[in-house]
Amino acid sequence: MGITIMPVGGYGEVGRNMTAIRVDDEVVILDMGIHVGNYIAFTEDEDLKNIKTSELKAAKAIPNDEIIKSWRKDVKAIIPTHAHLDHIAAIPFMAGKYNCPIIASPFTIALLKTNLDIENIHLPNKFKSVNVNATVKISDHLKVEFINVTHSTPQSVMVALHTKYGIIIYANDFKFDLTPTLGKKVNFERLRELGKSKKVLCLIAECLYSNEAIKMPSENVAKEMLKEVLLGTDNKGKAVIVTTFSSHIARLKSIIEIGKKMKRKVVFLGRSLSKYVQAAESVKIVNFSKQIEIVKYSSKIRKRLGKVKEKDRAKYLFVVTGHQGEPKATLSKIAHNDIRFKLRNGDHVVFSSKTIPTEENRKSKEVLCDKLRQQGVRIFDDIHISGHAGKEDLRDLISLVNPKMIIPSHGERKMEEGTLKLALEMGYEKEDIKMIKNGQKVKVV
Ligand SMILES: [Zn+2]
């Protein structure tokens, strides 16, 4: 009896996040994601595919939940914290065998449902939307609180699991943005309250940038960076194409606002962009469709770009998929002239993104950029601010919630060590910081 935390995926690695917390004879699962790199390497695509779960597990594309097989019947809820693939995308493959609801913020649920609908997958689980900053009772003994935080997709939450022994806080992923460009501010008051209660037994927190002595800048800074390249450079008469993360609704909103200032018509091109916008509109976070044109399928994208007259190229701001250089995405197709839209000398391509550092991505991005340069295109790279916590965001979180124990998550060993160093600086003892691998459970009380 007591509380045991089982790291199922995403410990000692970046991706396929999944954590199970056992409180007496009940279990809560936090996140159920894919390892994007391993998934794409195995399936050659980021879309949901009809592939055997066992094969995906063997390819380390999804978490290996066999390690909690004996806990399966006791699972009371699956709680994805936000809509990123490394937190939700294993749900279609794995959630069905757990006899429990999937509980998440409205945007996360909307996106999950959209994905399942597209692939015609029916899960037996019930879906339950819970607003940010609300609490839901999942059994007579357990309550789950969604604390609003800022990240790079809407309605991301930190989860506080309230038990009779105390509180466990799960902070994957977040940054402390004081001036978000979309959505609510971080609920600092609540975090402070939880810290003051002295009941926080354990904090599980991302450690991706724990070695970087920064406080992650606001999304507002990314907006200013975009303004500089879109409004502050000479693009008169030139085609301008921007590419970014489809799940980053706040960034897309900034691009639309700047597009209006440029007096260009904003057109979104790509299936993934359309999917995330549809989910965001369905829960009334934004209303892009009224302001811009969205073209979903590649056959229609071809037609749409083919219709753009030579003299009208500078009347548009195109927003496309393919910021990592993905060969099948719209940007690569444009660069390789697979679409009847000819790039000209001096056209602008803006990457409002950062290349996720895998060998595969680096290669694809290089191929794409070479192709763009051959056509005389001006490339603006790294016009981006991350949605993850820097070392100083982490320090603030630890000070606020005052946990007895810290488990670094969502990072490789050297990143976990960053959290350890920080905690030691803050006066923690080494044994209070648990650096664990997948499968290595920790008894909290
Ligand atoms: Zn995330």
Describe the secondary structure blueprint for this structure.
Layout: E1 3-9, E2 18-23, E3 26-30, H1 36-43, H2 53-58, E4 75-79, H3 85-88, H4 91-94, E5 102-104, H5 106-119, E6 127-129, E7 135-137, E8 143-149, E9 156-162, E10 167-171, H6 188-196, E11 200-206, H7 219-231, E12 240-244, H8 249-261, E13 265-269, H9 271-282, E14 293-295, H10 298-306, E15 316-320, H11 330-335, E16 348-352, H12 359-374, E17 378-380, H13 391-401, E18 405-409, H14 413-425, E19 442-443
Helix pairs in contact: 5-9, 6-13, 7-8, 13-14
Bound molecules: zinc ion.
Tag the structure with descriptive keywords:
Metallo-beta-lactamase, Chain A, 2 domains, single chain, binds zinc ion, 6-stranded parallel sheet, Rossmann fold, 20% strand, 445 residues, alpha/beta
| Total beta strands | 19
Net shape? globular
- Mean pLDDT rating: 96
Enumerate how many helices there are, as a single number: 14
Low-confidence runs (pLDDT<50, min 5 residues)? none
Through-space gap between termini = 9 Å
Q: How much helix is in the residues?
A: 25-40%
Characterise this structure.
Helix 5 crosses helix 9 (271-282) and helix 6 crosses helix 13 (391-401). The chain has helices at residues 36-43, 53-58, 85-88, 91-94, 106-119, 188-196, 219-231, 249-261, 271-282, 298-306, 330-335, 359-374, 391-401, 413-425; strands spanning 3-9, 18-23, 26-30, 75-79, 102-104, 127-129, 135-137, 143-149, 156-162, 167-171, 200-206, 240-244, 265-269, 293-295, 316-320, 348-352, 378-380, 405-409, 442-443. The chain is globular and about 70 Å long. The chain starts with a strand and ends with a strand. The mean pLDDT is 96. The chain folds into two domains: 3-215 and 387-443, Metallo-beta-lactamase, Chain A; 219-380, 3-Layer(aba) Sandwich (Rossmann fold). The longest helix has 16 residues, at 359-374. The chain contains 14 helices and 19 strands. Strand 7 (135-137) and strand 8 form a beta hairpin. It binds zinc ion. Zinc ion binds next to loops.
